[in-house]
Design brief:
228 residues; alpha/beta; 9 helices
Length: 228
C-alpha cells in the first residue's frame, strides 16, 4: 500500500466521508431524488426508485441520467434535492484539528454542489479548513468516477496526483485516482449503527486500488498528523 510521507495535497469527498455514514444525511437527499424523478417523469414512487438507482449506477449520478435522457436542467435538480435538514450533523472540532495539522493543501472533490458543501461544512465546524471545492458544476456535470472529472480537477487546482491522497466512501470512485498515482483511502461505516446504503456501495475494501481502509476518519487523520 502507498504511504503518506510524500503527500502535500489532501483530497476529500464530502458525503459519508467527512461525516459518519450512520448520520444517513444522504438518505434525505435520496428521498428527494426519488420524488423529483417521480414528478418529472410522471411515474409511481416505486418506478421512480428503480429508475433513480439505475441511472445512479449507469451515469454516476441520477442527475446525469435525468439530464442526458430527459432534458432536466441541473440547477432545478440540485435546488430541489438539496432541500434537506442538516441538523443531524454535529460539529467535529477534533477532526478539524487533525485536518489542520496535515501539511499542504486540503481540497474537496464532490458530486454535490458548492451550496450543499457549504451547509455541511458549516454544521461540522470545518468551513475554514479547506482551500477549495471542486463540485459537480465545476466538473461540467460529469460526476465521479468519470476519468475526465478527475483530470479537470487536477488541472484546475494544479494537483500532482503522485503527491496526493484521496479519501472517499465509494471504492469505485478510487479506481481512477489510484491509476493516476494517488494514495487512496476508503472510509467505511464503523459498524456501530445501521446505515442506509445499497449493497454495492459498501463493497471494494479488498480491491487492489484501495491502499487503506478506515471506519474512523478522525482517528485515522490524527494518526497521520503524527507521522507526516
Amino acid at each position: 500500500a502507498r504511504g503518506f510521507g510524500h503527500v502535500d495535497t489532501w483530497v476529500f469527498d464530502l458525503d459519508n466521508t467527512l461525516y459518519p455514514h450512520h448520520v444517513n444525511l444522504w438518505q434525505q437527499v435520496d428521498a428527494r431524488i426519488s420524488a423529483f424523478v417521480s414528478r418529472w417523469l410522471g411515474v409511481s414512487a416505486q418506478e421512480a426508485r428503480a429508475i433513480q438507482k439505475d441511472y445512479y449506477r449507469r451515469f454516476g449520478t441520477t442527475m446525469r441520467g435525468m439530464m442526458t435522457l430527459h432534458g432536466v436542467k441541473a440547477d432545478d435538480y440540485l435546488a430541489y434535492v438539496h432541500q434537506i435538514d442538516h441538523s443531524p450533523l454535529e460539529p467535529n472540532p477534533v477532526m478539524g484539528a487533525a485536518i489542520a495539522r496535515l501539511p499542504g493543501r486540503k481540497l474537496i472533490l464532490t458530486n454535490g454542489s458548492v451550496d450543499h458543501v457549504d451547509k455541511v461544512l458549516q454544521r461540522l465546524g470545518l468551513s475554514g479548513h479547506f482551500d477549495a471545492v471542486f463540485d459537480i458544476i465545476a466538473a461540467e456535470f460529469e460526476p465521479k468516477p468519470a476519468p475526465q472529472t478527475y483530470r479537470k480537477f487536477l488541472e484546475l487546482h494544479a494537483v500532482d496526483p503522485a503527491r496526493s491522497a484521496m479519501f472517499e466512501d465509494l471504492a469505485r470512485n478510487l479506481v481512477v485516482p489510484h491509476e493516476l498515482g494517488m494514495t487512496t483511502v476508503l472510509v467505511v461505516p464503523d459498524g456501530s449503527q445501521e446505515v442506509v446504503r445499497e449493497g454495492w456501495e459498501l463493497e471494494g475494501r479488498e480491491a487492489a486500488h484501495v491502499d487503506h481502509v478506515t471506519d474512523d476518519l478522525t482517528g485515522f487523520l490524527q494518526g497521520l498528523a503524527k507521522k507526516v
